Amino acid sequence: MTEQEILDKLDNSSIEYYGSFVQLGHPYSFLLDTRLNVFRGDNDRWAIAVEKLGYNPRGEAIILEIYYYGNCLINLGSYNNIPLNDYGIYPIDMDNFEEITDGEALKPDAKFWLVRGHQVPLTHTKQAYADAGIELKEYEPDTIRVEEAARLVLLTNRDLFRATDNELYKCIPADLKKILVLNEWFHKDFFLNLSPTLSDEHLRQTYEFNKNLTGLPGITFETFAQARRMHEIQASELDREEWETNRPGSYETWQLIAKVIVTNDLTHYKPTLQPNTHWIHWPDSGSL
């Protein structure tokens, strides 16, 4: 096992698995909380589980997603015959959540969330949010949005929303030991478009299909082909820039974690970059 092997595994996770490297700023999910867990076993086995708690308005739920990386993962699901390296947990009782939620906001009489069997009080007092540094959007007067309520609740009930060891070990062999837990770290979102290059024949077929479907008024095959080739070049350039600047292996967080795994020595984790995993650093999360 080498540090480079670990970094290569992380860098290529968006190719090996369905999806991409964990994105804290995902536009479909308001970021609420994060945690990173590192595991090590014998025979050069290792695993990383990244917890991301978010509110997904389209899914109408607060979801704890666990993203797995490693060389010994088990029990992975699949989608379109491609392995999935994440799964979601719903810490709040869904009946309770739906009962006290009106669209994307709390109902005025909402009193608590039932989180893993515990009643977690909710507040509608604006000053409590202001004191916690949570700016209320109030798209409608006197409304508290779900992500705002959750961010306040997490200040005193964070452990209830985080993964249990049983949940973490769902895709990790039980004999691996948890050697490092980080509540914050410096993170970069990493996403590759991986736009395919069409063959000339496939390009012609695509043009004919769309022409039959919509007519493509005023668009010749030559114009269509030129636009497509330009798109492929631009996508390739964006992927190259993304790879060079944002892939996990390109910055110290994951380089240090790889060193910790290889040496089994926690003293190697001495970051110089300021952590940025708090939700306040990802204002565009949930923006769509």
TrEMBL record:
This is Uncharacterized protein. Pfam families: DUF7003. InterPro entries: DUF7003. It comes from Xanthocytophaga agilis.
